[in-house]
Design goal:
- By secondary structure, the protein is of the alpha+beta class.
- 50% of the residues lie in helices and 13% in strands.
- It is built from four helices and three strands; from the N terminus they run αβααββα.
- A three-stranded antiparallel β-sheet has the order 1-3-2.
- It starts with a helix and ends with a helix.
- This is Transcription regulator TrmB N-terminal domain-containing protein.
């Protein structure tokens, strides 16, 4: 797979998870939704897990993947700002 294809598939996976934030799916299910082979998806999903974008739930033989909601800081502590 070329770098451009890899990045395109990575973007497809990210959009799938962001559009379906409560989806918990196997690699086979993700492949069906995207029309891709699971062999193509494993390196993408591994990278997304390492980046913290996707959570790996469970182990072999059927691991499940789900979107990892980003942490949003809603309060600003002025004591921490003093050290900046």
């Amino acid at each position: 797979m070329s770098r451009e294809e890899f990045l395109g598939l990575q973007a497809e996976c990210m959009m799938l998870f962001q559009s379906n934030p409560y989806m918990t799916e196997s690699v086979e299910g993700i492949g069906t939704r995207l029309g891709r082979k699971k062999e193509e998806l494993y390196p993408i999903l591994d990278l997304l897990v390492k980046q913290g974008i996707v959570q790996l739930m469970g182990k072999e033989p059927t691991p499940l993947y789900r979107y990892s909601e980003p942490v949003i800081i809603t309060e600003f502590d002025s004591d921490e700002a003093d050290g900046i």
